[in-house]
Amino acid sequence: xxxxxxxxxxxxxxxxxxxxxxxxxxxxxxxxxxxxxxxxxxxxxxxxxxxxxxxxxxxxxxxxxxxxxxxxxxxxxxxxxxxxxxxxxxxxxxxxxxxxxxxxxxxxxxxx
Amino acid sequence: xxxxxxxxxxxxxxxxxxxxxxxxxxxxxxxxxxxxxxxxxxxxxxxxxxxxxxxxxxxxxxxxxxxxxxxxxxxxxxxxxxxxxxxxxxxxxxxxxxxxxxxxxxxxxxxx
Lengths: 112, 112
Fold this sequence. Notes:
The complex is a heterodimer. By secondary structure, chain A is mostly beta strands.
């Protein structure tokens, strides 16, 4: 069974530029999550989708972050414009029944 | 709101020593509790879980018991190996099932 796929693996941008991350969850998993993991901290939930609807986006900085999950499968997370404090690892995860989360390898973002 | 508190690291111990990583939580209702592990260069993966009070989760020699009276879910292993050097995250899923919250992570260093 293929795992959660994320790309790119690494991204370096300058502040005020835009960036996008892509995630393909495990086939059949209805729930998809985007987490932000700042160095030395635990993952923080940014947004959670159930199929293609948003369940929770209370911690998503909506003035600069956006996410979509078209057709209830792949998802894209975008940051525009990026700030220095957005430097982090962005993790995508999926689950079948809101139980165990399966994580991708993450995208490491550096904002200079 | 719901929260998870882990003992802070780093924790340094010798191979074959006994490992304990403390985790306490605050939540309404009856959350499910998890331990995830992140090996160097890899994504988070589930180590063990417990879904109700007094349940014991176990995997790869690790154990944790869901203690509702002390709101704790401490991770233990009787004889650690160098290969157990990783970051361990305690997590809870709220009883509504909508959100999984992570602790800050604990990194034990195991010396040969």
